[in-house]
Amino acid sequence: MRSGLAFLGEAACRCRAGEVRPEDLPAVAAGALAAGLVTPALCELADLSRTADARDVREAFGQAPAEVGIRLPDRGLARRHGLSAPIGPGC
């Protein structure tokens, strides 16, 4: 099983590339928590429903990488990275 940090880093990169829908981010947060990474933003995000306001979801998810020191690439680099492995349910 991947570490929570690796899981969140991959998810953040895929989100930045536009490959993950906002309604899937609570499940992504739950996956990172299950993999052992616990941060306030991940806990908040995992508690949101799939029907939560997309702005709230993006704001919570945007804080999570910063809480653990993950720097996000620009959108173009994230797209070129071409990650194709699924990161969680519905992703």
Describe this structure in words.
The structure is a single chain. The chain is mainly α. It has one domain. The chain contains 5 helices and no strands. The longest helix is centred in the middle third of the chain and has 14 residues.
Task: Please write out the topology.
Elements: H1 4-16, H2 25-34, H3 40-46, H4 54-67, H5 75-81
Shape: globular
Number of helices: 5
From the alpha carbons, calculate the radius of gyration and give it in angstroms: 12 Å
Separation, N- and C-terminal Cα atoms: 17 Å
Mean pLDDT: 82
Order of helices and strands: HHHHH
- Assign a percent range to the helix content: 55-70%
Please tell me the total number of domains.
1
- Outline the biggest β-sheet: none
* SS-derived structural category: mainly alpha
Question: What fraction strand?
Answer: under 5%
Tell how many strands the DSSP assignment holds. Answer: 0
In the predicted model, the low-confidence regions spanning at least 5 consecutive residues are 83-91
Features:
disordered C terminus, globular, single chain, 91 residues
Give a quick summary of the entry.
The chain has 91 residues and is an all-alpha fold. Helix content is 56%, strand content 0%.
